[in-house]
Amino acid sequence: MRSIAELIIKKRDGYPLSEEELKYFIESYLSGRTPEYQMASLLMAIFFKDMETEEISALTDVFVNSGSKISFPSEYQTVDKHSTGGVGDKISLILAPIVASLGVKVPMMSGRGLGHTGGTLDKLESIPGFRTNYSAVEFRNLIDEVGMAIISQSPKLVPADYKIYALRDKTGTVESLPLITASIMSKKIAEGAQNLVIDMKVGAGAFMQNIEIAHKLAGMLKSTGERFGQKVSVVFTNMNSPLGEYVGNALEVLETIEFLKGNRLRDIDVIVIELAIEMLLLSKTCKSREDAKKLIDQTISDGSALEKFRQFVKAQGGNPDICDDVSLLPQAKEMIPIISDKTGYINSINSRAIGYALIHLGAGRKEANDKIDFGVGARLLRKIGDRLEKGETIGFVYSQDRIQGVKMASELVKHYSITERKIETEETIIDSWCTDSPDI
Ligand code: URA
Question: Which of 84, 310, 321, 410 lies 20 to 30 A from 131 at CA?
Fold first, then answer.
């Protein structure tokens, strides 16, 4: 075996590393024999030289085998959903109870806010009492009893990713597609889901800003999952406008409850339906898209999906009464209108800047140990293509302090670009790599 320095040079010069070499390197780093500066050098070499498909699988395998794995009874049809992250993305909170209420087992390991995006775990923790850290045994019990669970990654599962992700964050190597692939897929494989549906967000409020790069990452995720026997479907969805109306933790839980009560906002609805259909097909719960769509509409309209959400909140220690009384969720003291300063059509929305602005208001963390203010955020009523009149209310800021809220409202309005020319509204689903109806 070459030395650690020789392996760095090999990668730096553009040659692929074998599984044995990757295993040696990462085990040596995890055991403390190889220092952070050498691991950081290898990460930077991977960032610049990329990795071949074989190499990505090998790295994923090394990650998976660095910790424990979870498995579910073979008769379970498990499907997880992963989002690459966006602004106002509360899809997991809505989708999981819908498909779980139809008998699909949904084991989800989710993340916290990253960059300008919010995190599913932070949103859920805005529910009084809600708990997200569970052992593997407890996770399996939740899936047995409720049919769904949304928990945080435990350090025992894929410890290699746990340690290397923190180093990537400090060394400018988060954006490497092979490293993103190994990081995401190792957790999805170790968590034991047989099927995975990925919501690949594309656009101004997403990490993938154009479809070409989104296709490249999707290809890597899909081929890696399939090498480990996991079926992977990918739906590419528009992230130019913030999703739905609300951005902020408790506000997005409120919007989830509203949706499950039947108040289905169009952009959320289109994505939820597309992903839910795919989850029902992958799990062989339905034979066709049409059957799946009927079941989804029914489970929302007869209240079963909301009932599943209530059961899930209770099982994970949260107060289920939020479903009947949303004032039990944390709230901001002030609600300040956002007023349009121009007349015309919305040409673009700087969703990334909106995400960062709301983090500064307290809806996310600027530093890893910051405490989130769960009640703050914004309601944004208008989308790209909508017409605005000067002086019209286009949304609201929810803040704890009136002066800060007024400042935020005048900042947010600057992130809307207005034109006199009529603009077409945008498609919500950009592309889809999904199954045909499987034979049952
Ligand atoms: N999410 C992950 O889990 N890992 C990455 O590298 C990026 C997003």
Answer: 84
State the catalytic residue, choosing from 61, 89, 122, 161.
Answer: 161
Count of domains for the chain: 3
The answer on 317 and 415 residing in a single domain is no
Cβ atoms within 10 Å of 407's Cβ, excluding its own: 16
> Rounded to two decimals, what is the model's pTM?
0.94
Q: Mean of the per-residue pLDDT values for the chain?
A: 95
Is position 68 within any domain? Answer: no
Q: What is the CATH number of the domain that holds 33?
A: 1.20.970.10
- Which pLDDT tens digit goes with each residue over 224-281? 999 999 999 999 999 999 999 999 999 999 999 999 999 999 999 999 999 999 999 9
Give the Å distance between the CA of 334 and the centre of ligand 1. 35
Helix axes 36-49, 177-190, angle to 10 degrees: 110
**Ligand 1 atom at shortest distance from the alpha carbon of 183:** 4
| Bridge partners (DSSP) listed for residue 107 | 149
**More confident site: 204 or 201:** 201
Do 155 and 268 reside in the same domain of the chain? yes
Query: Are residues 222 and 288 part of one domain?
Result: yes
Closest approach atom of ligand 1 to CA 187: 3
Question: Do 321 and 343 belong together in one domain?
Answer: no
The amino acid occupying position 18 is S
Q: Examine residue 67 and state whether it is found in any structural domain, yes or no.
A: no
- For residue 161, the CA-to-ligand 1 centroid distance in Å is 9
| Closest Cα to atom 2 of ligand 1 | 184
- Residue of 187, 222, 352, 382 with catalytic role: 187
Range of the domain at 350: 331-419
Active site (annotated) includes residue 227: no
Q: Domain holding 306: CATH number?
A: 3.40.1030.10
Cα–Cα distances (Å) from 313 to 44, 126, 306, 307, in that order, read: 41, 11, 11, 10
Q: Which of 83, 154, 183, 186 is catalytic?
A: 183
> Tell me, what CATH number does 390's domain have?
3.90.1170.30
Q: What is the pLDDT of residues 78-115, one digit of tens each?
A: 999 999 999 999 999 999 999 999 999 999 998 888 78
Bridge partners of 235, per DSSP, are 199, 432
Q: Give the DSSP H or E segment for 226.
A: helix 211-227
d(C-alpha 436, C-alpha 440), whole Å: 12
106 with 151, same domain? yes
Count Cβ atoms within 10 A of the Cβ of residue 23 and give its class: 0-12 exposed, 13-18 middle, 19 or more buried. Answer: middle
